[in-house]
């Protein structure tokens, strides 16, 4: 079977760069627009024959990855049955564990129901005792007796009250702002580079998660803005190789990679 290799794989296998690879396509009369993947029009490829012919023409030692040999039908069936047995065993264990959990929860619910029933009985007994006990009679309160005697004058020394000193608020501690470093001249903010080429933030995040785009992380300041992600020269080249064939890719006059590919 004539295998296919996308343009990024071709550049790696031929040990060249994207600009030279495009020139070789033109020299070999290969139209890049005709090499689109039907499943994904953003991906372009060369067949194994085209790649071998390109390497042979330029005397490039080409080492293609070995093609995986297909397993026999019986081996696949046996492997599938073994996997199915394993999954069935796992499901049985999970079902048994769930039944044990249900039994435990039912026992707990039964215990809670018994406790609730006992509490209801106790509350009913308390209510019965309250209704059966007669109210206690209060003793009569004697009437106050009038007194003609003048109130006694206190000869004790009056207490002097002292006003407590006003509470003072603790001095506020000034927080020292962390000094951020300026973005080095060798780095470019990732957000600015992405926006200049019209690539969405989601597409860049996916490339970073798949380790296809190397970024520099840090805490810098660039044009009065905080920068956490940046690209060096190698990261810019990776970005250009990943998204130059992407739908909606825009060239930028300030991008050195775009200048190289245009030259």
Low-pLDDT stretches = none
Main β-sheet: number of strands, strand sense, barrel status? Answer: 4 strands, mixed
Annotation, overall tally of beta strands: 6
Distance between the termini: 37 Å
Give the SSE order as H and E letters.
EHHEHHEEHHEEHH
| Percent of residues in beta strands | 5-15%
Rg: 42 Å
Structural class: alpha+beta
* Proportion of helical residues: 40-55%
**Average predicted local confidence, pLDDT:** 81
Tally the helices.
8
The dominant shape is elongated
Strand order of the largest sheet: 3-5-6-4
Structure explained in plain terms:
The chain contains eight helices and six strands, in the order E-H-H-E-H-H-E-E-H-H-E-E-H-H. It has 263 residues and is an alpha+beta fold. A four-stranded mixed sheet has the order 3-5-6-4. A two-stranded antiparallel sheet has the order 1-2. Strand 5 (216-222) and strand 6 (225-231) form a beta hairpin.
Task: Spell out the key features of this protein.
263 residues, alpha+beta, Multidrug-efflux Transporter Regulator, Chain: A, Domain 2, two-stranded antiparallel ribbon, 8 helices, 46% helix, elongated
